[in-house]
Amino acid sequence: MNEYLLEEKLRRDKDEVCKIIEYLDIPLSTRAGGVGTYIRSVSKEFKSRGHKVYLKDGAGRLAIPLTNRNFVGLSNEYYDIHHLHEPSTLLLVNRILQRPSKVKGILVATVHAPIKNKIFGTLYSLSMKKMYENVKLVLTSTSRNARYVLRHGVENVCVIPLWADTFFSPKQNMFKRRKYVLNVCVVDKYHTYKNYPMLSRLGKLLRSKYNIELIHVGIHDFELPYISHVGVVSRTKLRAYYQNAILSVLPSKGPYEGFGIVAAEALACGTPVLVSDDCGISEYLTDEFVTTLGDFERKLAYMIEELISNPRKLVQKAFEESKKFGYQNCIKVVDGIINLAT
Predict the structure, then answer these.
(1) Which of 2, 141, 256, 325 has fewest C-beta within 10 Å?
(2) Is 229 a residue whose pLDDT tops 50?
(3) pTM of the predicted structure, to 2 decimals
(4) All domains in the chain, ordered by first residue
């Protein structure tokens, strides 16, 4: 069906449900960080409105050696909307195996972490430029990523932050905290942008100067010095870790931390955060919770002393910040996609 006939069909059927397929480049059997939160909640919102939603995640599909992710191919079956989430791993493989002319329906893409290194970034850029020729709407979580896709000739770009207010619990006593600082991330050979050397330095500083433990939650293929690893936990237990932490830290480096939803999750629990200005979420946070990597350790020490002496000010400010990352942002995403089709 060509574009004109598709638009005519959608115009005729605008009061009927849309048939939507969502593609995710990693398996949803894992927590999948902000990606998993995003795709689960968007799917749920589509379904609550009566639309037929189909999900293809990366489980069991062809792995791409360059990315530590999984390839998700486009379907030949007719759908009103193809929603490609994090299309960074489609690359040229997708262009070879599935030509754009075979895609039946409107293409919508979301981008949270564009790749910018010299070799792989060039390949990625060429692939994205080709794919964006067929995309009608790009949703991105930060303005820096919006500028990236605009350079590829995309005209319809919408910047909407991710959401994390599902972690809020009205039963929580936000001022009763245990003696630890929290880090939530993946620790393996592929995720070095999480800044493992700094995490260890922070753990040493907290232990030696304040007798405070730095706890890491998440997948870890190796142990970090001065860090207490607890591994992967359920969302219920993760919420408890957030709620009881004095502070949550995310000292990521480079462009790969497209957003950093773990910081938004912590804020939803009233837990102050300290993130590097390389993290996408830093665009939305006030100066109290953001610093440069060069100043990270000094700012951490300052915040710890503040939280020990007078925690209420920072805790209340953290909860106020969390309102920027509410579920209404998910509703904006779904509205944008549906409006495009109807």
Answers:
(1) 2
(2) yes
(3) 0.87
(4) 3-162+327-341 (3.40.50.2000), 166-325 (3.40.50.2000)
